[in-house]
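Box 3.1. Reading complex inputs
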Amino acid sequence: MTVGIVGAGQLGRMLALAGYPLGQDVLFLDRSADTPGARVAPTLCGEFTDRRLLRELARRSEVITFDWENVSVESLAALGRGTRIAPPLAALAASQDRLSEKRLFDRLRIPTTRYAAVDSRAALLRAIRRIGLPGVLKTRRMGYDGKGQAVLRRLDDVDAALAALHGQPAIYEEFVPFDCEVSVIGARSRRGEFAIYPLNGNEHRDGILRVTRSPFGTAALQRRAAGHLRRVLEHFDYAGVLNIEFFVRRGRLVANETAPRVHNSGHWTIEGAETSQFENHLRAILDLPLGSTAPRGHSAMVNLIGTLPPREALLSIPGVHLHDYGKTPRAGRKLGHCTVVAGSAAGRERLLRRLLKVVGD
Ligand code: AMP
């Protein structure tokens, strides 16, 4: 019984760690042998598009999944009908292109930012006339953690923003002066069971997630976000975990993006929920019953970015859980995270303040 995972980053590693208590083995495919995942499970080393290695992964696994949304859909599709892949490739393809992502939100009546496709200077000027300034120009593909995007405040910003695209197809979207950012994470199994977690409140810095709190927001906001998530899961006849990120503006949800995988804003579920997002992803793709998503208290997760504070200092805070991904430090790189869980929101905030002091915030 092996799950094949394309990509052996920290998400893959946490999937593998969630699999062991269930008696579930994992086999990775990644470009490097020096990855967070390769430290905990065997790894086939080569390109994500290497047909021979993908076939070997398929032969040795009962189901194939991925920990990164930019793996090649074409290479996975070439494995043919005999290979079970979850989540479905249609969901993977939609999330790889910001334009198809927006069209998906429109089709499923999920409110999103106003947007226009941009493939030339003239198209950008037309988009600005229609949508207005300020706005955000984003590459359609391979953008994550705020990479490949520029905020346009004046018409004078057009040329610099276009130059930064290096001719890549893009979308222009309205700038949302949001009150806060939230995400919703949930699983659907092939038998049609749903398991949706409490809403996450997310703080970003420089486009990278810094802090998540959960549960977050009103019951009405949670209900609406969960409804949107269910529509996406049903649309794809989905198996696995999926995430949607939203801006919140005057109590309304505006969808920003979706990822067909476990998500950084759900790391708190390892200690803070009855069943973690990683375990529920495995249960969902293996046709096992899904686990409860009930929170065990009020959780906060802090990403450790660029440098790792001394372990002693982090662990001296009562109740702190440290996850060190074993990566080489580099500016802007996610090296690990810490989670605290408390009996009340006020207690969570007290622990979070101590944690942020050690992390250097
Ligand atoms: P993304 O790569 O689309 O997730 O963007 C990264 C972060 O940039 C988001 O979490 C927001 O904080 C910010 N951002 C992206 N798009 C917009 C927008 N249209 N309006 C305001 N802020 C945005």
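In summary: DSSP finds twelve helices and 17 strands in the chain.
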